[in-house]
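Q: I'm writing up a methods section and want to include an example of the input and output format. Could you take the sequence below and give the corresponding predicted structure tokens, formatted cleanly so I can copy it straight into the document?
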Amino acid sequence: MPFILILYYSRYGATAEMARLIARGVEEVPGIEARLRTVPAVSTVCEATEDSVPASGAPYATLDDLRQCLGLALGSPTRFGNMAAPVKYFLDGTSPLWLAGALIGKPAAVFTSTSSLHGGQETTLLTMMLPLLHHGMMILGLPYSETDLLRTTSGGTPYGPSHLAGGESNQPLTEEEKRLCQALGRRLAGAALALDRARANH
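A: Here is the clean output for your methods example:
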């Protein structure tokens, strides 16, 4: 079964919940499934070795997950307006895929969670797109036909779903944020299948 890879890092659980909602949206589309994967934390002191299987949650991602996926949703909490170090560290190790052109033409999308409303949601989403563009991926956002973009007073951007987690990182996702996550999953799955069919017909 072809799959969308939903690759994320989550410290307090909000980004992980967004990933699960995107997965739900993907699996509303017949003929494709969602594969949830995370990345290990990195040490600020020295390169640390994590157990190969996390204590809880999704398994760690491998380069094969990326190589084999039909599309990618990449998620991270914000860190000073940019993706978290574990996500960047994982992406920095994808040079073999870049050299092989393994991700060229695959659709990709991004999502994030922040502690404050103006804490870098949009800059994080935009900077997460940059390495995906270097890989030749086709970036998808959310169109304003998703009318929750017009109504939300928390997270949600045309660049991808976002969530306002609050200063204690414990605010639940709003109904608008949830719907936007699922909408992205459906959109990414539909685009991935359409592109795959187009490649097969050429």
